[in-house]
Write a structure and sequence with these properties.
- Helices cover about 60% and strands about 5% of the residues.
- The protein has about 170 residues and is mainly α.
- It has one domain (about 15-165).
- It has a two-stranded antiparallel sheet.
- α1 (about 20-40) runs antiparallel to α3, α3 (about 60-80) packs antiparallel against α4 (about 105-120) and α5 crosses α6 (about 155-165).
- It is elongated and about 55 Å long.
């Protein structure tokens, strides 16, 4: 089974949702436009005459990979929750399919991949600092908090999933 729907142990809660029609453009603005704006805060290394150099262009390999992962994750969340994308960490479902079969946090991984692509493309120290801040935030705050919440909500189902799928990326363990 690809998802687990376990009730919230008798507790009724109002779930905050975001319409997919708003989530997709918002995500693209945040992860596509914001890095460009941040890159304007510092000089661009590797750029000549206002154009990216060869090594900067290599970053554009990561950008569509990260974008595709982000859109795929949003699509899975919106497909799982018919009212819209649930914004709480304590979701009413546990995704285990698609990119969630290879990473417990593929959306964060996609966002970091995308941002790393922009770091390389823009050659900007300001974007690199933003990348490091996001990595620190995800790794030491968001991910541990999300994992504690999912463990509390889904219990053994989440612990089994956690043993099978690595936190960031890897192969499925048998």
């Amino acid at each position: 089974m690809s998802t687990s729907n376990i009730p919230n142990r008798g507790q009724s809660k109002r779930v905050k949702v975001l319409s997919p029609w708003l989530a997709y453009p918002l995500a693209l603005i945040v992860w596509e436009v914001l890095p460009w704006a941040i890159s304007l805060l510092a000089s661009r290394h590797g750029w000549l005459a206002g154009r990216p150099g060869f090594w900067n262009l290599i970053g554009l390999i990561l950008v569509p990979i990260g974008t595709a992962g982000l859109i795929w994750g949003l699509w899975l969340h919106s497909a799982q929750s018919p009212d819209g994308i649930e914004m709480e960490l304590d979701k009413s479902y546990l995704l285990k399919r698609g990119p969630y079969a290879f990473s417990r946090h593929p959306m964060y991984l996609s966002e970091l991949t995308l941002l790393l692509g922009w770091v390389i493309f823009y050659g900007s120290v300001a974007v690199l600092i933003a990348f490091i801040i996001w990595w620190l935030f995800f790794n030491f705050y968001a991910v541990p908090m999300e994992e504690r919440t999912l463990d509390a909500h889904f219990g053994e189902a989440y612990r089994e999933y956690k043993q099978q799928v690595p936190r960031w990326f890897g192969r499925i363990r048998s």
